[in-house]
Design brief:
By secondary structure, this protein is an alpha+beta fold.
Length: about 140
């Protein structure tokens, strides 16, 4: 495995990310639930699937750093329930940059709210990323 290029060079600790406005349709939400093999009354009630917050964190970070990343850790805190189809806004910040085992890492904290209630989080997602290794030719 080759050491990845320094794709995190422009990512600054403390930098703000977003906003990213997005709506997860009922059909997409149901696909998330089904792919996870989850059967739950919340799905039947139309609730957004909480682990979608991980994907939203990835999309948020990719706005600033479009390179291939490996998600190495996630901490998800669920604050409340919202139905699928609700317009969402994702904001965040780079909370930490560090090196471990000769690899660079970055921690991103993302907060997912509705556009109607931007001060009341649905989810808080903290994700650690490291650049994907470059393939040799």
């Amino acid at each position: 495995m080759n050491k990845p290029a320094n794709v995190l060079a422009g990512v600054r600790e403390g930098a703000s990310l977003g906003p990213l406005e997005i709506t997860v349709s009922a059909a997409a939400n149901e696909r998330y639930w089904q792919a996870a093999g989850v059967v739950h009354p919340a799905l039947e009630g139309g609730a957004l699937y909480p682990p979608i917050a991980a994907n939203l964190t990835v999309l948020l970070f990719q706005q600033s750093c479009p390179h291939a990343m490996i998600q190495t850790r996630q901490l998800l805190r669920c604050h409340r329930i919202e139905p699928a189809g609700t317009p969402l806004v994702v904001t965040g910040r780079v909370t930490r940059r560090y090196e471990k085992r000769e690899r660079e890492y970055v921690d991103i904290e993302a907060v997912v709210c509705t556009t109607a209630r931007p001060e009341e989080p649905i989810w808080t997602s903290i994700v650690s990323f490291t650049p994907a290794a470059e393939l040799s030719s």
